[in-house]
Amino acid sequence: MNNFKGKTIAVIGSGLIGRSWTMVFISAGYRVEIYDVQTGQATRAIEEISKQLKELQEGGMLRGSLSAQEQMSLISSQEDLKQTLEGAFFVQECVFEDLAAKQDIFHNLESHVGEDVILSSSTSCLLPTEVFLQVTHKKRCIVSHPVNPPYYVKLVELVPHPETDAAVMERTYSLMKEVGQSPVRLRREIDGFALNRIQYAVIAEAWRLVKDGVLSVADVDLVMSEGLGMRYAFIGPMETVHLNAEGLEQYMQRYGEGMKRVLSSFGPVPDFSGEAVKKINQEMCEQIPSDPQHLAARRERRDRFILGLAKLKKDQESK
Ligand code: NAD
């Protein structure tokens, strides 16, 4: 177990994800120093966090044992990168998803911190070998990819660079557990990491079923929200298989051939362009028009549902 409580984490970039990481870290008692290249942005981020923490406290959804005010006292921001990094044992980078910007910032970060400081990136889809290309001591580099919104959706994908030290993976894993996230350790880097590889497989088959006229857009979404999703909020595909027979081995004896037959009937990777996009988009927009107001209302509904589910999971898991 790490013993870093009261120690400082530097968060670089204070947009949506930088703010979320900050809230997660302070909820567990870490101090956070925020730096953003845009003047005034870090101050605005702190104001936004303060507002959110108050709302969470009022709604009984504040994480950790500290009050909103106590958590707020753990955050500060600096206009200077070097000052931000002073005393930090862990740096969580949250700048735009732009390879050149990330390479540049990590090169810069390395020049201000000691070799034992962990350099962690929030990148959604850039590989560690690309992101950390310009870092000399790559053994302290790791990707910690959160899922939006990390305050409720706790998965963090930890992806090593080929040179990442095993101890760095373990220290990051313990830190993430300690702050209440659910980290998973990829043993090597792979395009799309795990979450997007699985998500894209689902999107691709949903797309083919709609494009080939088997299901409507509304019905394919119901297959997930009223079918598979009911289980998947609590147990994954491996446990599903294990429980749906007398164990995984028996499931494969019974259903393995059928699965292979169905899987071999899947079409090629869709190209997600041309007429198909227009047609599927039109059908989607008949249910949810794509103007900002309708989208905002559905996002608000989605976030309310996720919050409710997070509460339910917390209750179920504490039983
Ligand atoms: P964002 O656009 O909301 O915020 C980026 C922030 O970084 C801005 O405030 C910007 O001023 C700042 N910035 C840019 N260059 C900088 C630099 N050199 N130094 C310091 N600050 C700098 O972006 P976001 O949605 O918070 O995404 C941040 C990272 O998190 C990206 O890599 C993204 O792929 C990843 N991520 C995003 C999501 C999501 O759903 N938004 C989910 C998981 C991971």
TrEMBL record:
<comment type="similarity">
    <text>Belongs to the 3-hydroxyacyl-CoA dehydrogenase family.</text>
</comment>
<dbReference type="InterPro" id="IPR006180">
    <property type="entry name" value="3-OHacyl-CoA_DH_CS"/>
</dbReference>
<comment type="subunit">
    <text>Homodimer.</text>
</comment>
<dbReference type="InterPro" id="IPR006176">
    <property type="entry name" value="3-OHacyl-CoA_DH_NAD-bd"/>
</dbReference>
<dbReference type="InterPro" id="IPR013328">
    <property type="entry name" value="6PGD_dom2"/>
</dbReference>
<feature type="domain" description="3-hydroxyacyl-CoA dehydrogenase C-terminal">
    <location>
        <begin position="192"/>
        <end position="263"/>
    </location>
</feature>
<dbReference type="InterPro" id="IPR022694">
    <property type="entry name" value="3-OHacyl-CoA_DH"/>
</dbReference>
<keyword id="KW-0560">Oxidoreductase</keyword>
<dbReference type="GO" id="GO:0005737">
    <property type="term" value="C:cytoplasm"/>
</dbReference>
<dbReference type="GO" id="GO:0050104">
    <property type="term" value="F:L-gulonate 3-dehydrogenase activity"/>
</dbReference>
<dbReference type="GO" id="GO:0070403">
    <property type="term" value="F:NAD+ binding"/>
</dbReference>
<dbReference type="Pfam" id="PF02737">
    <property type="entry name" value="3HCDH_N"/>
</dbReference>
<feature type="domain" description="3-hydroxyacyl-CoA dehydrogenase NAD binding">
    <location>
        <begin position="8"/>
        <end position="187"/>
    </location>
</feature>
<dbReference type="InterPro" id="IPR008927">
    <property type="entry name" value="6-PGluconate_DH-like_C_sf"/>
</dbReference>
<keyword id="KW-0597">Phosphoprotein</keyword>
<feature type="site" description="Important for catalytic activity">
    <location>
        <position position="145"/>
    </location>
</feature>
<keyword id="KW-0520">NAD</keyword>
<protein>
    <recommendedName>
        <fullName>L-gulonate 3-dehydrogenase</fullName>
        <ecNumber>1.1.1.45</ecNumber>
    </recommendedName>
</protein>
<dbReference type="InterPro" id="IPR006108">
    <property type="entry name" value="3HC_DH_C"/>
</dbReference>
<dbReference type="Pfam" id="PF00725">
    <property type="entry name" value="3HCDH"/>
</dbReference>
<dbReference type="GO" id="GO:0006631">
    <property type="term" value="P:fatty acid metabolic process"/>
</dbReference>
<dbReference type="InterPro" id="IPR036291">
    <property type="entry name" value="NAD(P)-bd_dom_sf"/>
</dbReference>
<keyword id="KW-0963">Cytoplasm</keyword>
